[in-house]
Amino acid sequence: MSKFRLGALPPVPSVLLASLSVQAGAAMAKGLFPAVGPTGAASLRIGLSAVMLLLAFRPRIAAMSGAQWRAVVPYGMTLGAMNVLFYLALARVPLGLCVTLEFVGPLLLAVSSSRRALDFLWVVLAAGGIGLIAPWNGQGLDMLGALLALLAGACWAGYIVLGGRVSQVLPGSGAVATGMVFATLTVLPFTLVGGGLSQLTPGLFASGLLLALLSSAIPFSLEMNALRKLPGRTFSILMSLGPVLAALCGLLFLGEHLLPTQWLAVALVVAASAGATLNAKKVALPVEG
């Protein structure tokens, strides 16, 4: 019944709810950090999401060809690295700013192949946003956290490129499910070394299930519903609102208050992302991983 209700939603609310669910999941993950650490939270999210997607789509992993393996393994590893880096950044940086910095990766990818003057405006806007976030006086925002968020954005850009290659040899939702398996294998060693899951309790496991639902299963269903009904460009423009929704979730669920200049930074990056998507010949802002 829940699946029917998700599929019955209009496309625009589906996209907005999907993004809101992802950001609420990130806020929940940050609440788990004191108990399991960032890598432990990443393992719970990715591992349990992989199980859910495998059960839902049952990809034929054993029957994959060599070309499919060569495409899906780096795709999954990049997805895992993106999530770990994002959670490590989130442990140091407010959610809204963390997502804002992460968005720089796909934004630069969207304008990287363009030679039009207008697209350089989006780069300038994004650079202005980063400039407003950066703690030039050496106080405030954690610099390592900001760097980790930018690295997560770089992985997001790589995830887009690799995802395009995977879709050519392994189409359908099975590609995402299979990629999640390799994302789990990428994250798990860091978690085991750090001992993030050594104190796992039934309550924490239940929280991990909810985290996987909020961050992966529910958004994936909503996004697939929207993509069947919306042009890709419209979908990506709506997804550009992610930093705003992240800042609101950080405020509501984590009590993270941004400075007026930081809100302006969020607005600049959102405007740059939407503008780059609107004017791009090929949309490069993706479904969130």
TrEMBL record:
PANTHER family for this protein: AMINO-ACID METABOLITE EFFLUX PUMP-RELATED, INNER MEMBRANE TRANSPORTER
EamA domain: residues covered: 144-274
UniProt KW keywords: Membrane, Signal, Transmembrane, Transmembrane helix
InterPro entries hit by this protein: AA-Vitamin_Transporters, EamA_dom, EmrE-like
Lineage: Bacteria, Pseudomonadati, Bacteroidota, Cytophagia, Cytophagales
GO CC annotations on file: membrane
Keyword Transferase: no
Stretches that traverse the bilayer: 39-57, 69-88, 94-111, 118-137, 143-162, 174-197, 203-222, 234-255, 261-280
Protein name: Inner membrane transporter RhtA
